[in-house]
Amino acid sequence: MKKVYADAKSALEGLLFDDMTIMAGGFGLCGIPEVLIEAIRDSGVKGLTVISNNAGIDNVGLGVLLETRQIRKMISSYVGENKTFAKQYLGGELEIEFNPQGTLAERIRAGGAGIPAFFTKTGVGTLVAEGKEVREFDGETYVMERGLFADLSVVHAWKGDTEGNLVYRKTARNFNPMMASAAKVTVAEVETLVQPGELDPDHIITPGIFVKRIINVADAGKRIEQRTVRKRA
After folding, report:
1. Buried b vs exposed e over 118-138: b needs ≥16 C-beta within 10 Å?
2. Which of 37, 151, 154, 229 shows the greatest Cβ crowding within 10 Å of its Cβ?
3. Do you know which SUPFAM superfamilies this protein is assigned to (predicted)?
């Protein structure tokens, strides 16, 4: 099965449609599939439900899809760095489903594992639990959360081989591995593309069975979301 495509546009061909659900890996600007996100923008697809920890920043990452108003709903944990996001939400243009960060991660992992729902103590007695089933186990109260599964996942990896096996680097790993398993189709952008057998099997985090299409992004940007420095001694 040919998995390697020449560019993001061709890798996404035939996969995008209006009102679809997309998972996008990354945390802030770390490990985001920036090239694939820009190709989604260029496609003009609209009415999207996007599952991502946050929405990047203005004009970067998922922020570009907010600028073009292609996103209808975000399922996220933290969105405080994006002024466009806040403006659209407060203006009633954007729907948000907030999740505690650990709950969001587990909802995605559960979706990839075929688990339709699970119970957690996180959010009990708060707005997070409103409208959800609540149940007691061993004298403790838990709220039910549904697993998440998407039409498409776009992820970013440090290394990958032509069979789709992926290796992530340090904190850029974040949400990418779980999202890679929780969609009908996963498309990965990788910084270094190698041949089968060149990756140490013990280092592979996402097995190639989850990845259907790959592009090589050798010059991936390394953006800094917030630069914090101290004065020299």
Report:
1. bbbebbeeeebbeeeeeeeee
2. 154
3. NagB/RpiA/CoA transferase-like
Q: Is residue 1 part of a domain?
A: no
In the predicted model, what is the mean pLDDT of residues 210-220? 94
Domain range for 94 is 8-115+148-216
In sequence order, which residues have a C-beta less than 8 Å from that of residue 132 and are 6 or more positions away? 143, 144, 145
Mean pLDDT along residues 75-101: 90
Q: What is the residue type of 209? A: I
Mean pLDDT of 172-178: 97
Residue entry with tokens 């259907």: 212
Banded pLDDT at 154 (limits 50, 70, 90): very high
- CA distance linking residue 99 with residue 76, whole number of Å: 6
Number of structural domains in the chain: 1
Q: Would 130 be classed as within a structural domain? A: no
Facing residues of 135 across strands? Answer: 142
Q: Is 156:27 a contact under the CB 8 Å cutoff?
A: no
